[in-house]
From TrEMBL:
The gene is galE_2. PANTHER family: UDP-GLUCOSE 4-EPIMERASE. It catalyses: UDP-alpha-D-glucose = UDP-alpha-D-galactose. Pfam families: GDP_Man_Dehyd. Pathway: Carbohydrate metabolism; galactose metabolism. One of its GO terms (cellular component) is cytosol. This is UDP-glucose 4-epimerase. Belongs to the NAD(P)-dependent epimerase/dehydratase family. Residues 4-321 form the NAD(P)-binding domain. Homodimer. Transmembrane segments: none annotated. GO terms for biological process: galactose metabolic process.
Length: 336
């Protein structure tokens, strides 16, 4: 298949580009490099032994997207492009709706015009809001608590309306839990600009000596050790989930929501310990008060993805930490 990856130079998009190319698909990347670096293209070339076609542009440029869909004879689109920082979305909601929701509308207009009706959308566990029960299945009520999460839910709802209006559309909303880790080569990985918001990149920078210690946001949750529990999933497992989801859509029309998680949660202290083991470095930390908006526990049941598309995550927390550490070690000097 010929597949367009919007936001394809980003963290999850670049790993998915590797897996799709190795599965003999032709990928075209579209990215405005707002939160990624052109350097990634050279790294992808090293991993794959060939250059990938990448267009430097904005997903909100409907004319450009239409041209790519037609010129490259695109069969399916994976829509990764968007802004993803929860705190930033609270500070600047309009920017989040403008990029995420407007970006999706622009893409859908182009897809409709070019008659490309197969789409994977990068959604998030954040659409569920505060868990009402665990593990979270796809029927769990939605109720995002921040503009980022709301933008994801608005898009999901738009996509549902679209499939209701025309049954030729094939759309899967992939609700990622906590993607972490990197490609085994150490050439691509998560490279956040500034102070990392998320746990794994922060720990990696502490282990790498770029930061002195980790602030653990609360040790008074009702969990095994008092720290927050999340469903961390290796980015390569996640990437493979996209290949499976495209196969699923080949034979299934309509709108589908699918959790991509492991089904198992780890606490912050467990992640610190696993990272120390994988890196053979100390990760100094101090406990501070809870971060506003954080929940105690969040993990998926990935049973639906297993049943309908024969996918489940296979990589361990150790492999997640090892690969994140390799990427950190090999890239910390070059990182901007
Ligand atoms: P990322 O920031 O690394 O990748 C997103 C890419 O989209 C970046 O390369 C950025 O430059 C590009 N982009 C942003 N706006 C654009 C626009 N208007 N036009 C063209 N390109 C644009 O993020 P990621 O972690 O790879 O996430 C990919 C998707 O998955 C996002 O939609 C995100 O919301 C979603 N998601 C991520 C996580 C996570 O923890 N990483 C969890 C759940 C869902
Ligand atoms: C994990 C755990 C923190 C940083 C976020 C988004 C979500 C999704 C994934 C996109 C929590 C603790 C963290 C630190 C800490 N993204 N922590 N010190 O909050 O589960 O999810 O990323 O869709 O929408 O909300 O992930 O990695 O920030 O936190 O103690 O410096 O680590 O309290 O328990 P989160 P996270």
């Amino acid at each position: 298949m010929n597949i367009l990856l919007t936001g394809g130079a980003g963290y999850i998009g670049s790993h998915t580009a590797v897996v799709l190319t190795q599965a003999n698909h032709e990928v075209v990347l579209l990215d405005n490099f707002y939160n990624s670096h052109k350097r990634v293209l050279g790294q992808l070339q090293k991993i794959l032994g060939k250059n990938l076609h990448c267009v430097d542009g904005d997903v909100r440029n409907t004319t450009l997207i239409t041209k790519i869909l037609q010129d490259c004879k695109i069969d399916a689109v994976i829509h990764f492009a968007g802004l993803k920082a929860v705190g930033e979305s609270v500070q600047n909601p309009i920017e989040y709706y403008a990029n995420n929701v407007q970006g999706a509308i622009s893409l859908l207009e182009a897809m409709k015009f070019a008659n490309v009706k197969t789409l994977l959308f990068s959604s998030s566990a954040t659409v569920y809001g505060d868990p009402q029960y665990l593990p979270i299945d796809e029927n769990h009520p939605t109720g995002p608590t921040n503009p980022y999460g709301k933008s994801k839910l608005h898009i999901e709802e738009m996509l549902k309306d679209l499939t209701n209006s025309d049954n030729e559309w094939k759309i899967a909303c992939l609700r990622y839990f906590n993607p972490v880790g990197a490609h085994e080569s150490g050439l691509i990985g998560e490279n956040p600009a500034g102070i990392p918001n998320n746990l794994l990149p922060y720990i990696a920078q502490v282990a790498g000596g770029m930061r002195s210690d980790l602030a653990v946001f609360g040790d008074d949750y009702p969990t095994i050790d008092g720290t927050g529990i999340r469903d961390y999933i290796h980015v390569m497992d996640l990437a493979e989930g996209h290949v499976k989801a495209l196969e699923f859509l080949e034979v299934n029309n309509g709108w589908h929501a699918l959790n991509l998680g492991t089904g198992r949660g780890y606490s912050v202290f467990e992640v610190i310990e696993a990272f120390e083991k994988a890196s053979a470095r100390k990760v100094p930390y101090h406990v501070v008060s809870r971060r506003l908006g954080d929940v105690s526990e969040c993990y998926a049941t990935p049973q639906k993805a297993k049943v309908v598309m024969s996918w489940s995550a296979t990589r361990s927390l150790h492999e997640m930490c090892l690969s994140a550490w390799d990427f950190q070690r090999l890239n910390s000097v070059a990182a901007p």
